[in-house]
Design a protein that fits this description.
- It holds the Pfam family PEP_mutase.
- It is a single chain.
- The protein has one domain: Phosphoenolpyruvate-binding domains (TIM Barrel, Alpha-Beta Barrel), CATH 3.20.20.60.
- Helices cover about 45% and strands about 15% of the residues.
- It has helices at about 5, 20-30, 40-45, 55-65, 85-100, 115-125, 145-160, 170-180, 195-205, 215-230, 240-255; strands spanning about 15, 20, 35-40, 75, 100-105, 130-135, 165, 185-190, 205-210.
- It is globular and about 55 Å long.
């Protein structure tokens, strides 16, 4: 079992924050996070591109190369693999692993479950040690049908997925029911209106991702700060100093 896979089998769930650039990842690592993920929205939006539209393959690879040598375990949001051909998805996964990724998310976007399973199998055949977190969008894009969710996740498990991800599922009863059908760790997307991290852990969830929340919260802080300044108030909240941010780049050069 790889070190990253082992984090999914610990006594407490893996809380995985999602970064969008070197500075955000370095700040999170300084907070003691052993593993950090990327967020596809945080890759696409800064470049003026849509998320989930297979428009950021090269940017995703570039970010992986930027972060992959850092002293934390990196999991990359690879959308749907940026291709429909399982072989091409596997080749992209091989590139990500070579750049330092230890895990990837692959989402089905409610497309063919059989095709998604074929992508998972191809990736595992090409890069056996890469942790594949197979995401189904039954709750994110669909109507949350429990039967379809179980069927898709079963197909992904059978294809070799190391873990499964069901963003949008926040109901404790639904999570408990789903866990009974799984043989691999379950990843849930944290929601401020959903169960706490501790509650999700008590339910048996193995991994809790923050997705694009931190990136969107950072944008929200921009809006709050400029509103305060415009209104004659001093901005509130934590603000790293110029020198502290500069030091993050110095640390990268020294590593």
């Amino acid at each position: 079992m790889t070190p990253f896979a082992a984090l999914h089998h610990a006594d407490t769930p893996l809380l995985l924050p999602n970064a969008w650039d070197h500075a955000s990842a370095a700040l999170l690592a300084a907070q003691g996070f052993e593993a950090i993920g990327t967020t596809s929205l945080g890759v696409a939006a800064p470049a003026g591109l849509p998320d989930g539209a297979a428009a950021t393959r090269d940017l995703t690879l570039s970010l992986t190369r930027l972060l992959g040598a850092a002293p934390y375990l990196l999991s990359v949001d690879a959308e749907d693999g940026f291709a429909q051909d399982p072989y091409q998805v596997a080749e992209f996964a091989r590139e990500l692993a070579a750049a330092g990724a230890v895990g990837i998310n692959l989402e089905d976007g409610l497309g063919s479950a059989a095709l998604h399973a074929a992508k998972i199998a191809a990736v595992k055949a090409a890069v056996p040690d890469l942790f594949v977190n197979a995401r189904t969008d039954t709750h994110w894009l669909g109507d949350g049908d429990e039967r379809e969710t179980r069927q898709r996740l079963d197909a992904y498990q059978q294809a070799g997925a190391d873990g499964v991800f069901v963003p949008g599922l926040t109901d404790p009863a639904g999570i408990t029911t789903l866990l009974k059908t799984l043989d691999v760790p379950l990843n849930i997307l944290y929601s401020p209106s959903g169960p706490t991290v501790a509650h999700l852990g008590d339910l048996g969830v193995s991994r809790i991702s923050l997705g694009s929340l931190l990136y969107r919260r950072a944008l929200g802080a921009v809006l709050e700060a400029v509103a305060d300044i415009r209104g004659g108030r001093s901005p509130q909240g934590t603000v790293p100093s110029y020198d502290e941010v500069q030091a993050l780049s110095a640390e990268r050069r020294d590593s």
